[in-house]
Amino acid sequence: MAAARGARSARSVAKRKRKASRTIPRKKASSARGSTLAARSRVKKMAGKKRAAKKTAARR
Fold it and tell me: How far apart are CA 28 and CA 59, in angstroms?
């Protein structure tokens, strides 16, 4: 089976390298909620809300 057309062109390789250089090292996700930037920020926001709710519940 042949590779997709243009999969190994110089431009494709350069584009891949640029994208790879922009990635940042991240911890392994503890829950399967997605690893895109939007998904990670959503999860982070929900975690903060849960943490705040837990804190206020402990105060009462």
Answer: 32
